[in-house]
Automatic annotation (TrEMBL):
This is Acetyl-coenzyme A synthetase. Residues 532-610 form the AMP-binding enzyme C-terminal domain. It comes from the Bacteria. HAMAP family: Ac_CoA_synth. One of its GO terms (biological process) is acetyl-CoA biosynthetic process from acetate. It catalyses: acetate + ATP + CoA = acetyl-CoA + AMP + diphosphate. Belongs to the ATP-dependent AMP-binding enzyme family. It comes from Enterovirga rhinocerotis. Its cofactor is Mg(2+). Mg(2+) binds at V538, H540, V543. One of its GO terms (cellular component) is cytosol.
């Protein structure tokens, strides 16, 4: 395949932290001498007690399958909040740390590092007065307001482990995630505000607690000011509690391997797992990638449009940028409110230099036409980034030509909740870009392409993507279930971390991520287990069986296609279809709404009763001409019915 090449400009090569020659040297050293490389770069953060051990990691493997253990900088002592705030106070106390842009364009504010310190210290004291200390878990369910970052940093300051739950999740999903990590403290807001509409966050928290109990305290940030129910013995407004405390709050001394946060994410099977990240290695990886991948220089204004409820928000709105003393923009709203020019208006308003978003947003805005972009200046932009799903070359080219006026390199960053930070990406001063390719590995990352049997493929090839060596930001375990960690990531290819992604490597050694090869789908950059949507559907009293697959969707990347079999005696109607969509939204959240539902009198199964998802995927992709071998089906006729009534006609 002949991909277009966008070379690194002279200007970029000169100005960037890393040019091509330096990339080669640093990359080689990072994989040949990881101990030496990370000994040196571990020092980019401040340590209360410096480390003498750098890397102590094992992926198990054929000889020692059970022994997966990952430790970095293990005798070092530090604190993440200290690194993100306190260490900057002497030199940049008055510099803006966070620019907040509200949902309504008339609302914005700037928070300096000194103000950030005071806000975080106060919030930490509020938590401490309610019994939160080192090792406790705290659930954060917040809109995109600065208090969300304060809450994360307040936990880090106390050594508490936060679990941020995306504000779009339903009370049921929230309840699972609260009990999944045993939080006794929840931090939330009265309501969220997105695209002019309110989100009943506090009411959702109340509903979640009513279901599971066990929560002792709820701290409520006033965002919209609407009255909400307050349980006097349990709930307190942050502004009331913060008046009672000071801005003195020392940082807890944390071992490099003490947990920093849990983030629940979807896999192929069962309930979402709690991905656990720890302190030292995570911060080294997040801050180093933020500086090098986005080529961050002092004075730059940097904007990542993600939500703090996802890993991108953790690593690239909060921890990476703040550890680097950067100015990070936090946006409460959506790209299309009040108009489809909003992103670019915000860029102009705050003179944003570095802009990082998801392909789904680019595709949606592309559909709204060039004029909405072109009427803004965007002269401040220097670099564009993409994350969350494969970016199709058409969207890449549009992003480059229209948004960046052909002037800004695009860093397509491949990584995962599990990897903690960016893994494969072009460094903008070093690596020529090809639209649609995440290109080359970051320092210390050893990607390999393997075939189904685990044979490592060489040269240009296609197969599954594994990572052969540990890196500092890697997740350490599944919270409370190390065995699940080993089974999920290290059993398919013993001795290697399996990403769940398919991948092609071209003749230039560039990596092209082709999408998930497991039962995870990626809808608008949001990761979803098909099993989760299926279990929501079968929880409906009229549904007896459901199978969910992804299908190509112009804007979302993948859409959700559900095949549903009803209880006997129930009838398929359009009303029932709508009812099921509403049902799934209520059970999981709006991001899980099925796009297409097909009522299926029967699902294709093997004689042993296993659903043949391969066939369902092909029908959903409208490629029923290539169904492959159907001879093992128990009832081949069901396939004809599914094809005849398919919802996704080309
Ligand atoms: O399939 C890959 C896709 O998103 C998955 C990880 O999802 P999540 O843990 O939610 O993290 C998203 C933000 C880091 C991956 O397994 N993915 C992420 N970035 C890219 C991507 N696919 C292709 N290109 C990317 N740049």
């Amino acid at each position: 395949m002949d991909a277009k090449l966008y070379p690194v400009s002279q200007d970029w090569a000169r100005r960037a932290h890393v040019d091509e020659a330096k990339y080669q040297l640093m990359y080689e050293r990072s994989v040949k001498d990881p101990e030496g490389f990370w000994f040196e770069h571990g020092n980019r953060i401040d340590w209360f007690t410096t480390y003498s051990q750098v890397k102590n990691t094992s992926f198990g493997g054929p000889g020692s399958p059970g022994e997966v253990s990952i430790r970095w900088f293990e005798d070092g002592v530090t604190n993440v909040a200290y690194n993100c705030i306190d260490r900057h106070l002497a030199t940049r106390g008055d510099q803006v740390a966070i620019i907040w842009e509200g949902d309504d364009p008339s609302e914005s504010k700037s928070i300096t590092y000194r103000e950030l310190h005071d806000e975080v210290a106060r919030m930490a004291n509020v938590l401490r007065n309610r019994g939160v200390g080192k090792g406790d878990t705290v659930t954060i369910y917040m809109p995109m307001i600065p208090e969300a970052a304060y809450a994360m940093l307040a936990c880090a300051r106390l050594g508490a482990i936060h679990s941020v739950v995306f504000g779009g999740f339903s009370p049921d999903s929230l309840a699972d995630r609260i009990s999944g990590c045993g939080s006794k403290m929840i931090i939330t807001a009265d309501e969220g505000l997105r695209g002019g509409r309110t989100v009943p966050l506090k009411a959702n928290v109340d509903a979640a607690i009513a279901k599971i109990g066990g929560v002792d305290h709820v701290v409520v940030v006033r965002r919209t000011g609407s009255p909400v129910e307050m349980e006097p013995a349990r709930d307190v407004y942050l502004h009331d509690a913060a008046e009672q405390v000071t801005t003195e709050c020392p940082c807890e001394k944390m071992n490099a391997e003490d947990p920093l946060f849990i983030l629940f994410t979807s896999g192929s099977t069962g309930k979402p797992k709690g991905v656990l990240h720890t302190t030292g290695g995570y911060l080294v990886h997040a801050s180093m990638t933020h500086e090098y991948v986005f080529d961050y220089h002092d004075g730059d204004v940097y904007w990542c449009t993600a939500d703090v409820g996802w890993v991108t928000g953790h690593s690239y709105i909060v921890y990476g940028p703040l550890a680097n003393g950067a100015t990070t923009l936090m946006f409460e709203g959506v790209p299309t409110y009040p108009s489809v020019s909003r992103f670019w208006e915000v860029v102009d308003k705050h003179q944003v230099n570095i802009f990082y978003t998801a392909p789904t947003a680019i595709r949606a805005l592309m559909g709204a036409g060039e004029e909405a972009v072109k009427k803004t200046s965007r002269r401040s932009l220097r670099l564009l980034g993409s994350v969350g799903e494969p970016i199709n070359p058409e969207a890449w080219e549009w992003y480059h030509r229209v948004v960046g006026d052909g002037r800004c390199p695009i860093v397509d960053t491949w990584w995962q909740t599990e990897t903690g930070g960016i893994m494969i990406t072009p460094l903008p001063g070093a690596i020529a870009q090809k639209p649609g390719s995440a290109t080359r590995p970051f320092f210390g990352v050893v990607p390999q392409v393997v075939d189904a049997e685990g044979k490592v493929l060489e040269g240009a090839c296609e197969g599954n993507l594994v990572i052969a060596e540990s890196w500092p930001g890697q997740m350490r375990t599944v919270f409370g279930d190390h065995q699940r960690f080993i089974e999920t990531y290290f059993s398919a290819y013993p001795g290697k971390y399996f990403t769940g992604d398919g991948c092609r490597r071209d003749e230039d050694g560039y990596y092209w991520i082709t999408g998930r090869v497991d039962d995870v789908i990626n809808v608008s950059g949001h990761r979803m287990g098909t099993a989760e949507v299926e279990s929501a559907l079968v929880a409906h009293p009229k549904v007896s069986e459901a199978a969910v697959v992804g299908y190509p969707h112009d804007i979302k990347g993948q859409g959700i296609y559900a095949y549903v079999t009803l209880m006997s005696g129930e009838v398929f109607t359009d009303d029932l279809r709508k009812e099921l969509v509403t049902w799934v939204r209520k059970e999981i959240g709006p991001i899980a709404s099925p796009d297409l539902i097909q009522f299926a009198p029967g699902l294709p199964k093997t004689r042993s009763g296993k659903i043949m998802r391969r066939i369902l995927r092909k029908i959903a992709e409208d490629e029923f001409g290539s169904l492959g071998d159907t001879s093992t089906l128990a009832e081949p006729a069901v396939v004809d019915d599914l094809i005849a009534n398919r919802q996704n006609r080309a």
